[in-house]
Each structure stands twice: as C-alpha cells, then as structure tokens.
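User: Let's play a game. I give you a shape written as tokens, and you guess the letters that built it. Ready? Here's round one.
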C-alpha cells in the first residue's frame, strides 16, 4: 500500500499552519498565497524530503522544515510559470491559475512571497548549521544555475539551447535532488548517504520530467502544435526515461530498509504506455 497520502496530509496541515491567514493584512495577497498552495498538489518534492529524513534518522518529521521549504519554492515556480509571459496557463490543479483568479500583479507578488517564506521557514528557531546548509542547497537548486536557468532555456527564443537532458536537469531535477539531499541533511545523514539521496532525487526528477514531456508531446501533436520533443526520436526519449528510472531504483536499493517511502514515491510515476516495449 502506498503511504504517500499520509505524508501529503502532514504537509498540507503544516502548510496551512505556516501560511499567513487570509484575514491578516494584506488580506488579498495572503489569500492568494493560500490559494496557490492549498489544494490538490501531489507534494512529491516535500514527500521526498520527508522520506529522505526517514532514511537517515527513522523519523518522518526530522526533515519537515526542508519539506515545507521545497513545497513553497515549487509553489512559487508554478505561479510564475503560469503567467502570460511564461507558459500562459489558465488552469492549475483543477482550478483557475492564480493570475486568472487574482490578477497578474498579485500573482507575481504572491510567488515572490512564497519563495521568501521558504527561507524564513528554514531560518526559524531552532535553526542549526543543518538549516543553513539547506538554505544554500535550495538557493543553488532554485536559482540561475538550477531551476530558473532551466526555465530560461525552456522559454528563451533565438538561442542555442542545451540538450533536453540538461534542460530537464536544471529545470526539474535540480530541485528534486535538493529536496532529497536537504531531507537527509536535516536528519543528519552522512556524506555517503547524502550522495545516494541526491542521485535518487536527480534521477527521479529526470524521469518525471521526461514522462511529462512525453505527455505534453502527445497533447501537442493531437492539437497540431509543436513541443521540444516533436522532432526527436520518440523511442530514444522513452529509453532516456527508462535509464533514469533504473538509476532511481538502484539508488533506493542502496539505501536499505528505511527506503520504503522512496519506493512509494517511485510508484507514483504513472508510466502507462511510456516505457519501451
């Protein structure tokens, strides 16, 4: 039985607790932050952080600050991704995107506030040297050498882009890897275990993004439009997906008896027809 719903429920409860109430001024901004964060999110990054903490210390709550921080960072990125200047998406998680519901200006500011809150969470007493290490890890993973850099490559026109694996590594896998590493850091994992946790997070993130790209490709082809994978060999892309999935499974096997929650994370990948026959 997959146990991720209990982890996601814990994260939902804690996010509800730490987000400013919608009745606190500025009310509209705080309402927008809550709208963006509370709902139907899968909480995969936060679950990976919690699961990695469990691997290191046998305690699901040991990595809670890191898990909340990565969910807030991811939430901010989705708010900004949906904006007209980026992906121009009108829907998110079964409801109107934040800029549709609250306007572009409020959406931009709410995203900024969510990113800032992530680092406030990590700095809350009793912040330790472990928390400071996580601040550095997440800042690197979310910045120009990580997620934001990948988003830039994905949206910029008129430039030669890196290959798709590198874009996916920056845009998606970097934050998954940081979630796994920071979960381990908060729980006191040693350097060897942190390396394996980071390998798991990166491999899982690459598999996750390639799977998402394949689904986007099918939707775009059905609509008669193009996406970055349309001209690529579909068989090769599916083999990339299998390669990264195998790497993630190997990392889990190396982590021992406490890695069951990470196995549950892998089981959340709904592969369908994506794997090569």
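Assistant: Ready! My guess for every position:
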């Amino acid at each position: 039985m997959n146990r991720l719903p209990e982890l996601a429920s814990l994260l939902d409860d804690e996010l509800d607790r730490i987000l400013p109430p919608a009745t606190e001024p500025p009310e509209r901004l705080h309402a927008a932050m809550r709208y963006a964060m509370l709902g139907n999110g899968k909480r995969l990054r936060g679950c990976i952080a919690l699961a990695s903490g469990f691997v290191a210390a046998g305690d699901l709550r040991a990595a809670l600050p890191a898990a909340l921080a990565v969910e807030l960072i991811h939430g901010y990125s989705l708010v900004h991704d949906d904006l007209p200047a980026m992906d121009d998406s009108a829907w998110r998680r079964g409801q109107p995107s934040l800029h549709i519901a609250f306007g572009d200006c409020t959406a931009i500011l709410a995203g900024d506030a969510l990113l800032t809150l992530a680092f406030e969470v990590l700095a809350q007493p009793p912040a330790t040297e472990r928390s400071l290490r996580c601040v550095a890890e997440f800042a690197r993973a979310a910045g120009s050498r990580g997620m934001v850099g990948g988003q830039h490559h994905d949206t910029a026109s008129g430039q030669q882009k890196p290959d798709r694996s590198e874009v996916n590594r920056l845009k998606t896998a970097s934050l998954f890897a940081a979630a796994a590493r920071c979960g381990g850091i908060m729980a006191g994992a040693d350097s060897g275990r942190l390396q394996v946790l980071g390998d798991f997070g990166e491999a899982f993130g690459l598999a996750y993004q390639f799977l998402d790209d394949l689904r986007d490709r099918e939707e775009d082809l059905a609509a008669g439009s193009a996406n970055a994978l349309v001209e690529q060999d579909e068989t090769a892309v599916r083999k990339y997906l299998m390669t990264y999935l195998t790497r993630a499974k190997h990392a889990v096997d190396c982590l021992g008896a406490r890695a069951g929650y990470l196995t549950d994370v892998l089981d959340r990948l709904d592969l369908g027809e994506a794997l090569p026959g």
